[in-house]
Amino acid sequence: MIMTTDPVTLMKQEVGKAAAGRVKSDSIVGLGTGSTTAFAIQYIGERLASGDLKNIVGVPTSFQAEVLAKRYGIPLTTLDAIAHIDVAIDGADEVDPQKNLIKGGGAAHTREKVVDSLAKEFIVVVDGGKLVDKLGSTFLLPVEVIPMAVTPVMRKLEELGGKPDLRMGVKKAGPVVTDQGNLVIDVKFDDIADPASLEATINNIPGVLENGLFVGVADVVLVGEIIDGKPNIREF
Amino acid sequence: MIMTTDPVTLMKQEVGKAAAGRVKSDSIVGLGTGSTTAFAIQYIGERLASGDLKNIVGVPTSFQAEVLAKRYGIPLTTLDAIAHIDVAIDGADEVDPQKNLIKGGGAAHTREKVVDSLAKEFIVVVDGGKLVDKLGSTFLLPVEVIPMAVTPVMRKLEELGGKPDLRMGVKKAGPVVTDQGNLVIDVKFDDIADPASLEATINNIPGVLENGLFVGVADVVLVGEIIDGKPNIREF
Amino acid sequence: MIMTTDPVTLMKQEVGKAAAGRVKSDSIVGLGTGSTTAFAIQYIGERLASGDLKNIVGVPTSFQAEVLAKRYGIPLTTLDAIAHIDVAIDGADEVDPQKNLIKGGGAAHTREKVVDSLAKEFIVVVDGGKLVDKLGSTFLLPVEVIPMAVTPVMRKLEELGGKPDLRMGVKKAGPVVTDQGNLVIDVKFDDIADPASLEATINNIPGVLENGLFVGVADVVLVGEIIDGKPNIREF
Amino acid sequence: MIMTTDPVTLMKQEVGKAAAGRVKSDSIVGLGTGSTTAFAIQYIGERLASGDLKNIVGVPTSFQAEVLAKRYGIPLTTLDAIAHIDVAIDGADEVDPQKNLIKGGGAAHTREKVVDSLAKEFIVVVDGGKLVDKLGSTFLLPVEVIPMAVTPVMRKLEELGGKPDLRMGVKKAGPVVTDQGNLVIDVKFDDIADPASLEATINNIPGVLENGLFVGVADVVLVGEIIDGKPNIREF
Q1: Which family is it part of (chains A, B, C, D) (predicted)?
Q2: Which of A84, A105, B66, C183 has the lowest tally of Cβ within 10 angstroms?
């Protein structure tokens, strides 16, 4: 455990710890991506090591989750070997009051949606800055698309009212490539009035694999905030 | 031109010729996949060579279309370079009376749907054996899916009433892999009551790229039949 | 166990059983692809179930091996979790007297070479029909190549004296695609005089991932033959 | 043309202009990646537009080259349509006195090697900071590898004396993914005594697609330097 006195890090630790505390023995756990989720993975590992938790198998949503789970001693499995997921813990880039999410800042939203949507209980862990009244207010909507369809999909997204931009790489010439070998279009929507409908409409554009809208998937949101310089967690 | 006296081949030639005859000069043409479409590509090339047709650019839906277009001298472009497609010519595995289609026997339906759905006019070329009263009667519905999601997607397809099967390779150990690096699940549905709804529902399952239902995409269907031992073409 | 009286199947069973019999408890086992290897996987599973064998982890070389290992109860791991492989069991398309191999009929030779070359002991299981005096006598050499480089790689292979052909798909329009999303060129060489040199030369052509020559990788070859109508196994 | 008075940018413009000036009419040109090469692409386009150059077709090595070529009006083709490349212009991360290179900072070295190695004349454009006495002095050697083989390939690279590190993404969770869907290992070698031998040895490790050593590929190196505050170009 790295000791820290930085209030933001302390807060993320507390949220991760709270989520890890909800995992029960004998369960299959979806392991998400991101800095807060990373603390949850660490605490699940510590509970396993101490004997407080028994018989846990993890399903990673990303390379990062896989590496952390191995480091903290959480046995892993794949979706081929299981029939359901008991609980998934994952972050988000935006959360609205109905617990709908935008994810995909890390270009991992497709695998995350596959795993998170299989969980009986999906716990979202975020800091207070991710809360919005309306999705699309602060964050772009990521859309994963096969390379040959980038241009027509961009045109379709414009027809839907969005301003699309191909996500370009850093430490890589050209566009960011996802773990599936696809590209990511980040779309600015001024107003996402009906997230459920937009999610389905975009997924139905030929060439789109998955977009970052998660509507009706989250069950619990744990929000970390700093109140009077101290970390505080609330749930909704 | 290979001369043939086989009535089925003659019929396919005639349907391909009829479709190729509808292409106008100065247009962008989507080039589909399959044995009948192959004749259409050949005839477009011959019309270009004879000067009957001028200023054509093709957009291939597959490796096969690309190879044939190059052989018959049709200049090619990509979707990045054009803003629309004037006419697309492509085959189908099943066609219902509303011109809805099942495609994907060649595992190429994702790229085909991207191209065909961009065309102002999409001409389907089939022989009479592909006509069905209801989609799903004779052909399985292909669903392209990312490898890590095969098992949960299969389970979802069963919940929708289908009997899913992973398409296995020939001349390749393990499953067929698509040009996008994904796998194909072939699904038997006893009854596809509402193709439009099923198309959208399946595309919205996390991990699905595209399924073989083409609803409301085809404009014209050219059907080749053998009547009294002679090829005959009708349109609907 | 499926009972059979077919001598070829009986022979494959015996070879698979012989290979499985060489696996020791507490070891990491590379699990290959093919019909004879499938029997080895089955027998390893049976030895585990009976308690004759303990503490085995498998590393599959293909989807087929993974499915069989799960069916027969062999726990699996990935190359990220282990530092070596104790023994690998895999088939081959051709074996020469120096135990050099051609593999890749199933387009899985890249992953197979990664796994087999890590094994302290690599046991090849084949029937007598796979034995050749010189590699290339009866089987084409498979070369896995990235799609954009197919044409220049084919030209290079011709300069090396080969007759290259792109492997085309069945139940898939266009070429066979490997599990890595690449294509396979099958090359006819009239005479592979120096397999070690050809293996390195081809792997050094820009755009080539891996070719099917396995030189100096195999340690033991178990050959099944039918003598007087009965299965017989010899080793070299 | 963007006007600039920044000496570094001026120098890159001059080097790009010099390389573009060597392209002759009626030739097939390999178009590389990077900021200096970008100026070369721009100048080739301007020479085409002015009529100074005629009948040029470009072969892009990357998405970036493709976008720039389209912007500046250079017609493009693919390797399937041509039998050779007349001249290629590309950058490098390190150049030694024998004109051997390290490339791959943009994770595009595989496609670059395919294109650059086909060119009758390969012109390297760099600024003086890229010149080294020995390869590996300042830049890590990028190795493109299939995902399942990352760990054993890293171990092999350590045995060869390297310090390997998986290149991690920015604007993407987990590792950088290449245009081919593979990962990149950046390797620190204290001393690359024999680049030709190391290039072949690494390419022969199972699971490696291509490494960033370009030995014996470059024909001409154009070096931009600032002397007395003014851009200067020398060739070797």
Answers
A1: Belongs to the ribose 5-phosphate isomerase family.
A2: A84
The C residues from 98 to 137 touching B (CB cutoff 8 Å) are 105-108
- What is the rounded distance in angstroms from the CA atom of residue D40 to the CA atom of residue D36? 7
Phi (first) and psi of residue C162, to 5 degrees = -95, 160
Chain A residues touching B207 at Cβ < 8 A: 110, 113-114, 210
Question: What tens digit of pLDDT does each residue of A174-209 get?
Answer: 899 999 999 999 999 988 999 999 999 999 999 999
> Among partner residues A107, A168, A173, which is closest to D108 by beta-carbon distance?
A173
Give the structural domain span for B146: 141-209
> What's the number of domains chain A is made of?
2
Query: What is the residue-averaged pLDDT of chain A?
Result: 93
* pLDDT band, very low/low/confident/very high, at D4 (cuts 50, 70, 90): low
Q: Exposed e or buried b for every residue in A61-86, given b needs 16+ CB within 10 A?
A: bbbbbbbbbbebebebeebbeeeebb
Q: Determine contact: B200 vs chain A, CB below 8 A.
A: yes
Q: Are strands D85-90 and C94-95 parallel, antiparallel or unpaired?
A: unpaired
Q: Are residues D163 and D226 in the same domain?
A: no
- Residue D86 region by backbone torsions, left for phi larger than 0, else alpha for psi between -120 and 50, else beta: alpha
pTM above 0.80, yes or no: yes
d(CA C170, CA C147): 18
Radius of gyration of chain B (CA): 18
C-alpha to C-alpha distances, A54 to A13, A72, C161, nearest whole angstrom: 22, 14, 61
Strands C183-189 and C85-90: unpaired
Q: Which of C225, C222, C231 is nearest to C22 (CA)?
A: C222
* Domain harbouring B20, CATH code: 3.40.50.1360
Whole-angstrom distance, CA of residue B17 vs CA of residue B36: 9
